[in-house]
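> example.struct
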């Protein structure tokens, strides 16, 4: 099958969406499909055998890491040459609108997927009053697709409540080879803790942006005086966070990828994740695969991954004290922490990328078959 994948973000950017797309493209190509990736130009022409059609763009003012690429007629020429059997638009916003347009113009089956909870993001950028408008735009875009995929049951329900139709669940996936408990190392622990490997080590991995609510980790850190915090990642909120955590033992590590990232997860005592805007929280599954106990907000797609008291701890989203209590309990109960590590790894092992991609391929085939039957009728 020839699949044209339209996405607003791809390599070299690093985030949960790009991680999912990377593994999906790799497995689709490995299974014999051909993929054309239409994305903002990041300098790459190919990934794992899939061609990348890069569209020039400009950095988003509030979020320079994100490039805004506008649709252009040359995309249609590239699609004519590729002859897709199906178009998949990921978070259709700007560039994705070209995917919607060409699917309609060329009578190509259309799948859309929802990964970024933009309506909630607006609150963190002082644009909360635009939330109803954002939902209308999401509904208008997604309801043009024959199938809309979400990455958690919570998002399936929320989109359904806001009028999005033809919804289903795209199961989670994680790389259990890159992320594994055996990658724990004293060297990495020393690096993350800035030379204090004996101290309790709290870890956050992800974008440093307002919607991640990383400031909410500070009360947890202050409640455990001996603890140290490592923030892995980067983003537009870094300078603000550096000021916020200036008087605390916090290390801004920057980006880590591959085995070094796996080692960071495996070497920490607890992974703290306060975000309330997650459609899934793929990074949680990576932490769990590495055997790192998770303390996270009971919000969005997170309860799909974390079972409170079994493979991690959940706290109520507005309860900072809940996060403190959960983290203190985790650090104090060695036996319970070991059990959480083991159960977290067992949960992650259930969700390989190969199975997630096979599920996606079955969705693709069903959508193509359905359109063929409609055309024949």
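> example.seq
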């Amino acid at each position: 099958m020839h699949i044209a994948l339209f996405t607003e973000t791809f390599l070299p950017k690093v985030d949960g969406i790009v991680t999912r797309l990377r593994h999906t493209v790799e497995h689709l190509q490995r299974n014999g499909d051909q993929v054309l990736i239409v994305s903002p130009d990041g300098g790459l022409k190919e990934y794992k055998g899939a061609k990348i059609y890069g569209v020039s763009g400009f950095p988003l003012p509030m979020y320079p890491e994100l490039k805004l690429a506008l649709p252009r007629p040359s995309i249609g020429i590239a699609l004519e040459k590729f002859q897709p059997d199906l178009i998949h638009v990921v978070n259709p916003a700007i560039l994705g609108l070209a995917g919607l347009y060409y699917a309609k113009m060329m009578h190509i089956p259309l799948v859309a997927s929802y990964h970024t909870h933009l309506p909630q993001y607006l609150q963190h950028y002082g644009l909360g009053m635009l939330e109803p408008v954002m939902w209308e735009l999401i509904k208008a875009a997604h309801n043009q697709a024959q199938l809309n995929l979400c990455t958690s049951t919570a998002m399936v329900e929320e989109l359904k409540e806001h009028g999005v139709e033809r919804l289903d669940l795209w199961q989670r996936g994680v790389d259990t080879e890159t992320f594994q408990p055996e990658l724990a190392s004293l060297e990495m622990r020393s690096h993350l803790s800035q030379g204090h490997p004996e101290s309790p080590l709290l870890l956050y991995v992800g974008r440093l942006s307002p919607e991640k609510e990383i400031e909410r980790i500070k009360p947890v850190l202050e409640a455990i005086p001996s603890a140290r915090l490592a923030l892995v990642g980067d983003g537009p909120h870094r300078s603000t966070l550096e000021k916020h955590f200036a008087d605390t033992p916090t290390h801004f590590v920057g980006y880590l990828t591959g085995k070094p990232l796996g080692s960071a997860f495996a070497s920490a005592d607890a992974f703290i994740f306060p975000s309330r805007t997650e459609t899934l929280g793929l990074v949680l599954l990576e932490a769990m695969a590495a055997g790192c106990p998770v303390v996270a907000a009971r919000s969005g797609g997170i309860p799909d991954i974390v079972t409170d008291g079994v493979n991690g701890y959940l706290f109520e989203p507005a309860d900072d004290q809940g996060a403190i209590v959960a983290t203190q309990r985790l650090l104090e109960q060695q036996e319970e922490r070991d059990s959480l590590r083991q159960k977290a790894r067992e949960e992650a092992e259930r969700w390989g990328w190969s199975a997630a991609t096979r599920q996606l391929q079955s969705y693709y085939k069903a959508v193509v078959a359905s359109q063929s039957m409609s055309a024949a009728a």
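> remarks
The first strand starts at residue 2 and ends at 7.
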